[in-house]
């Protein structure tokens, strides 16, 4: 059986830099609060009309494909992870396939939020290992800036998120000291609502029983959207930050240890840990718990904020471009987020 190697990696960050102080125009917050609680100094926002989640994914994909020594026509499967797709449906995978003039290959969208890229890597790995595909494009991209509540009401969420994209091309390898060693995926839906965007959805929670009963069949379409839903701000992401934080600092170390133990490795063997960039305090907590040195953990949330499905490939790409990842290095990717879902990927570069 083959292993999967990252043959090429790319990233794309929009040019528009938004500092913490820029956010003061819209909400009551402060540079001090944001830096102290999250580590974030600035983030990027996509161009309002010219850039979408798909177009940013395309830019990252172009770089990854070129670095892999391939062309868009060589790609035989697309996996696109995002929570901020261009359309409710169809997904970004087919939009990228069209934009890059690829063949009529399969395109799969993954909606696993912060762990989306790790899940996508795991799926891609299975297809490569079995020999089904030889050039899989895995993309994580987000345009959060279009769907956040920039009033003081939404400040606990909106200050955290940023836009961007990362992509890798996975190919088979038979080299001993190269490729994905294992992937580990988890979920626990018991707290699904504490980090969620409820609408648009088919749950109908925003209507009272009485109101629902009063709808005739012709009015049933209204269940999906309502003016009240928009007026109440129920169209924005909702998060109980401290509750998420508590679980994140428990699950991150656990899923990293699980990957190490599955491969008879220890934390001392890790050359670089790329944690999902949710909050610098979470990364620091994980580093301390696993007793990792500073040079074993890569963080860039200071510059880009939390880019959800894009954060792991952006950080991995940046680390590689800065010479922090070399051939044969043991690299661990780990993510935790909404769902809750979490996971890890252990690989030799
Ligand atoms: O990537 C997806 C997974 N997400 C996560 O992992 C997020 C995990 N959670 C977190 O990162 C943190 O909980 C936050 C950064 C979201 C919030 O930090 P916190 O230290 O947990 O703050 P808090 O929510 O407990 O709020 C503390 C205070 C509150 O005021 P009072 O009630 O103490 O008066 C908030 O209203 O800070 C207030 N606050 C803000 N103040 C200024 C919340 N957001 C802001 C803000 N600026 N942006």
Q: How would you characterize the overall build of this protein?
A:
- The two termini are 18 Å apart.
- The protein is of the alpha/beta class.
- The chain has a 5-stranded mixed sheet with strand order 1-7-6-4-5, with helices on both faces. Strands 8-13-12-11 form a 4-stranded mixed sheet, sandwiched between helices.
- It is globular.
- It has 3 domains: 3-173, Thiolase/Chalcone synthase (Peroxisomal Thiolase, Chain A, domain 1); 179-191 and 239-348, Thiolase/Chalcone synthase (Peroxisomal Thiolase, Chain A, domain 1); 202-232, no CATH class.
- Helix 3 crosses helix 4 (92-99) and helix 9 (241-262) crosses helix 10 (280-289).
- The protein is built from 12 helices and 13 strands.
- The longest helix is centred in the C-terminal third of the chain and has 22 residues, at 241-262.
- Oxa(dethia)-CoA binds next to helix 2, helix 6 and helix 9.
> What can be said about the biggest beta sheet?
5 strands, mixed
What pattern of helices and strands is seen along the backbone?
EEHHEHEHEHEHEEEHHEHEHHHEE
Q: Unreliable stretches, pLDDT < 50, 5 or more residues?
A: none
The termini sit apart by: 18 Å
State the CATH superfamily name of the largest domain: Thiolase/Chalcone synthase
Helix/strand structural class:
alpha/beta
The structural domain count equals 3
Number of strand segments: 13
Strand content: 15-25%
Look at the structure and give the mean pLDDT.
95
* Structural Rg: 20 Å
CATH architecture of the largest domain: 3-Layer(aba) Sandwich
What is the overall silhouette?
Answer: globular
Strand order of the largest sheet: 1-7-6-4-5
Bound molecules: oxa(dethia)-CoA
């Amino acid at each position: 059986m083959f292993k999967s190697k990252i043959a090429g990696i790319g990233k794309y960050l929009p040019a528009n830099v938004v500092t913490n102080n820029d956010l003061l125009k819209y909400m009551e917050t402060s540079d001090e609060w944001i830096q102290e609680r999250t580590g974030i100094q600035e983030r990027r926002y996509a161009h309002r009309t010219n850039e979408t989640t798909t177009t940013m994914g395309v830019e990252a994909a172009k770089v990854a494909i070129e670095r892999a020594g391939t062309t868009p026509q060589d790609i035989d499967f697309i996996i696109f992870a995002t929570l901020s797709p261009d359309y409710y449906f169809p997904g970004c995978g087919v939009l990228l396939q069209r934009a890059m003039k690829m063949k009529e290959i399969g395109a799969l969208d993954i909606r696993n939020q912060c762990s989306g890229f790790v899940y996508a890597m795991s799926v891609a790995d299975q297809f490569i290992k079995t020999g089904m595909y030889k050039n899989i494009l895995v993309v994580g991209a987000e345009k959060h800036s279009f769907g956040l509540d920039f009033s003081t009401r939404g400040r606990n969420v909106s200050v955290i998120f940023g836009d961007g994209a990362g992509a890798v091309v996975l190919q088979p390898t038979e080299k001993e000291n190269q490729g994905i060693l294992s992937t580990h995926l988890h979920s626990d839906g018991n707290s699904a609502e504490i980090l969620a965007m409820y609408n648009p959805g088919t749950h109908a929670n925003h209507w009272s029983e009485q109101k629902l009963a009063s709808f005739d069949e012709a009015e049933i379409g209204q269940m999906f959207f309502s003016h009240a839903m928009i007026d109440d701000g129920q169209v924005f992401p909702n998060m109980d930050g401290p509750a998420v934080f508590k679980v994140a600092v428990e699950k991150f170390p656990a899923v990293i240890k699980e990957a190490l133990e599955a491969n008879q490795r220890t934390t001392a063997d890790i050359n670089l840990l790329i944690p999902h960039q949710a909050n610098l305090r979470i990364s620091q907590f994980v580093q301390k718990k696993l007793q990792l040195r500073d040079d074993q953990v890569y963080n860039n949330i200071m510059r880009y904020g939390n880019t959800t499905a894009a954060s792991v490939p952006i950080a991995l790409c940046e680390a590689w471009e800065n010479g922090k990842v070399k051939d044969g290095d043991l690299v661990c990717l780990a993510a935790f987020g909404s769902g809750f879902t979490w996971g890890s990927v252990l690989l030799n570069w």
